[in-house]
Amino acid sequence: MSTEDLQKAFQLSAELLQNQSYHDLTQNLISFLRSIEGVDEVSAYEIFSATPAAGTGGENQRDTLVRRFPLISNDDFDNQNADVLRKLVAESQGGVGYWVGSVAPVIYYDVAGAMEPRRIVLIKGAVSAHDFEVIRGLFGVYSNQVALLDARERDPLTRLLNRDSMDRVLEQVVDFYHLKQPEKETQSSWLALLDIDHASFSHDDDGEETLLHVSALLKKGFRSSDLLFRFDGEEFVVIVNQTDKDGVETSLERFRKDVASHPFPAGKINVSIGFTRVDPDYSAPLLIESADQALYQAKTGASNAIVYNDALRHKQSPMDDVECY
Ligand SMILES: Nc1nc2c(ncn2[C@@H]2O[C@H](COP(=O)(O)OP(=O)(O)OP(=O)(O)O)[C@@H](O)[C@H]2O)c(=O)[nH]1
């Protein structure tokens, strides 16, 4: 690497190190990579392996879940890169390199190893040898920062985003709808709070294993455009994106049934669910409160229930198999 390349790499490394969240870090990296001459497209992905729910089966479930970055995305999946991603996930050992199997040249950043979720950044285009060296040099900085920020933003057991991250992301979702009110109900987001009813949580190992199984069912059961969090103890949050009320009910009901029929090592467990629509006229804490009220109703009524709270708008809507109040 020339002195000039080194200086450039140092300067960019210093910029990357200043980012206080994985979101900002990756945004920063993407915009730098996009500014390189010859680069046509940059895209980033998070890849979750759906373990350890052995024997879950089910047509709606996937073995790996690929989520495109940034988190709030309207598209479910960028199919153009699906092929390269699938092959990289299967064959790459991690690191930075050229992917030669595709028509156009692709440089990949693969933050693999023990990291969950695995991160892959794809850079399409043809860059000079100098720029490639700078890109390569930044990879180490980026992957170390990802590991560091993950420790802050993710729950160490399930590797789902933690409560603090949920607060931040929900604010972003509310802001998103502030700027762009959905034209149709199918473009809405929904906040669901899920609570595991499980007698053996007093026993640590059983409890942890159950949480791992539940988080694996979540990762497999929801779309890649939905956002999953471990909220607190036995509570999880899902932000279900880009669907209407029937759609969110379909997804929650499917998950409820998946849990009810899952062979947990600790025996049978149920899940209670409360949900509300992400209405940009209400703050993130109010939305959580609304979903929490619905969850409370679900837990105190018939267990294994799903309850919708539209109380913020003081409206009731008729539904067949989902309770409203
Ligand atoms: N965001 C989100 N929406 C879902 C999910 N599951 C179902 N939906 C919504 O509910 C609708 C009906 O879902 P399904 O009953 O699974 O029907 P489907 O014909 O298999 O849905 P498609 O995947 O669109 O083909 C979908 O079109 C989505 O709008 C989910 O996990 N996440």
From TrEMBL:
**Pfam families, alphabetically?**
GGDEF (PF00990)
Q: Which GO terms describe its cellular component?
A: plasma membrane
What this protein catalyses is: 2 GTP = 3',3'-c-di-GMP + 2 diphosphate
Q: What is its EC number?
A: 2.7.7.65
GO MF, one annotated term: diguanylate cyclase activity
- Domain spans labelled GGDEF: 187-311
Superkingdom, taxonomy of origin: Bacteria
Any one Gene Ontology biological process term? cell adhesion involved in single-species biofilm formation
PROSITE patterns associated with the record: GGDEF
Q: List the protein's name.
A: diguanylate cyclase
Classification of source organism: Bacteria, Pseudomonadati, Pseudomonadota, Gammaproteobacteria, Oceanospirillales
